[in-house]
Specification:
The complex is a heterodimer of chains A (426) and B (176).
Chain A (H helix, E strand, L loop, with lengths): L4 H9 E6 L2 E5 L2 E5 L3 H10 L11 E4 L9 H16 L4 E3 L7 H7 L8 E4 L13 E4 L2 H10 L1 E5 L2 E8 L8 H12 L7 E6 L1 H4 L3 H9 L8 E4 L3 H11 L6 H8 L12 E6 L6 E3 L7 E3 H4 L6 E5 H4 L2 H11 L9 E5 L3 H9 L2 H8 L1 E3 L20 E4 L14 E4 L2 H10 L9
Parallel strand pairs in A: 3-4, 3-6, 4-5, 6-7, 9-10, 9-12, 10-11, 15-16, 15-18, 16-17, 18-19
Antiparallel strand pairs in A: 1-2, 2-8, 13-14
Helix pairs in contact in A: 2-5, 6-8, 9-10, 13-15, 13-16
Chain B lengths: L5 E7 L6 H4 L31 H5 L2 E4 L11 H8 L4 E4 L4 H9 L3 E4 L2 H11 L5 E5 L4 E6 L2 E6 L4 H9 L2 H8 L1
Parallel strand pairs in B: 1-2, 2-3, 3-4
Antiparallel strand pairs in B: 1-5, 5-6, 6-7
Classes of the chains: A alpha/beta (426), B alpha/beta (176).
Bound molecules: iron/sulfur cluster.
Iron/sulfur cluster (SF4) binds next to α4 and α12 of chain A.
Chain lengths: 426, 176
Amino acid sequence: MGKTIAEKIFESHLRDEPFEGTKVLDIDRVLCHEITTPVAIADLEWRGKDRVFDNTKIKAVIDHVTPSKDTKTAIQAKMLRDWARRHDLQDFFDVGRNGVCHALFPEKGYIRPGFTVIMGDSHTCTHGAFGAFAAGVGTTDLEVGILKGVCAFREPATIRVNLNGCLPEGVFAKDVILYVIGQLGVNGATDRVIEFAGPVVDGMTMEARMTLCNMAIEAGGTCGICMPDRVTVDYLWPFIQNDYVSKEAAVADFAKWHSDADAEYDQVLDFNISTLAPQVTFDYKPDCVKNVVDLAGTPVDQVYIGTCTNGRIEDLRIAAQILKGRRIADSVRGIVSPATPKIFSDALAEGIIQIFMDAGFCVTNPTCGACLGMSNGVLAEGEVCASTSNRNFNGRMGKGGMVHLMSPATAAATAITGVITDARSL
Amino acid sequence: MEKIFKGPAIFLDRNDINTDEIIPAKYLTEVTKEALKPYMLEDLKLEGFDPRGETLKNARVVVTRENFGCGSSREHAPWVFEVNGVHTIIGQSYARIFRQNMFNGGMLAIELPKEDIDALFAFSQQGEVTIDVDVEAQQIKACCGGQCQDFSFEISAFDKALVQSGGWVEFADARY
Ligand code: SF4
């Protein structure tokens, strides 16, 4: 019987099986941010175990609220910063070099095919785009990861999602994943890995694959995962060129992780993407999804472009193409947050930042900020936000606020008209 | 500290209660568990539910439906229950990270089949339900006005060991 990519990674990283059905894996990357890590650090200190298993495998960033907005967030940042210095972490990203974790860590080349990755953040599933098993965990799992470099899992079954056909003009990875979540439901992939395959995925850039995997958790998935291929190699090449004689050799090596043709799946779902239209959420759950045209005309107060889902350079390019030479509606506040300093500076070099500013957008530094209602664009009661983020939960971007999730193209079009708009109709 | 999995239950009749509802992100700037105490379930969208009410204040057990604890990985969600004396959740299903966070902290996220959850909700119509969980025997006793019903539940050997050994940090540090 063949194996899935997730099964291959589990097998190669198995440290222990303390009880039947519980697999303790060696972890290649333990990623940290300032919201969930300080409590783990404090607990380790309290237990007299203030140690790290390997300071080259632990990476840390201050990203959720940065620069700090008040005393409490300054203390969180300081706790992470002091800890990173105390243990001489090789890769710690502070103000000026920091960006949204799930955009920053891949950009630095830290995530490789076949890796195991944990982080105290549910959207860690993003890193599965590289063919890694990457799972969000809580603070206690993170703490054990920091201390021992291990994490326990029930071996997840896999749902294979075949994305067939091709992406229509004006339809993007975000539309695809919103549609898939709408089909699976918020509970549809719980304790499962979602394996994305098919011609649509093969044709996607790493940025688009990250958008796809980012929202696996919104269907309850442990991890989203894509097969590492030539696109993966091209993206990682600056970081791996000394390890392989050629790109072809790297492609061949990465192929060892691919799911076998006779692997066993919990479910296999086939979707024809060729007929897909731009998608948008309504209500307070990410599986409440409609075609944008069905919600067209809904007024919004704020448009937010950024986050670990859609704050990458490709996303900003898509939005800028629509915004170029136009102004956003007077009734709308536009906020754009490039997800990392590199994305910011690339956008600057490409003239994208100027386009956003000319259109009337406020450009913020890289941070999570408004995505989780902590800073830089929190909603007031009764306000509506068109957002490229991943969660529309009640109160997510501010108590009493409503969030509609959509692609950067839909968000840009919505900013121009002030009401939810299909960008293809402009 | 020995944890007691016993006490009055509060019934939250909804699927997909997420961690933003259990503890909103604006409180994640706290770095101690105790500081979370006043905010338990503050943003829960459920008709008739009062986050400041006596029923919640007295509750030691939460009974709910499907996919409880979905969304963010924040362990602040189990912690806000813990500091309010709620060590047991009984539901039809959970989001993976929330479930593991509960067991990792030595608390219970018990799964019961739909019939049993329905029976518990029906029982709650008669008055205040008190629940007593025997982890070793994997039995739940639910009592209301002198009447009692018993339910048995499954728990993985690992999760049971975590609850009995005081959580994952101690377990892992002793073993790895
Ligand atoms: S951008 Fe939003 S979803 Fe992504 S890590 Fe930050 S807070 Fe979480």
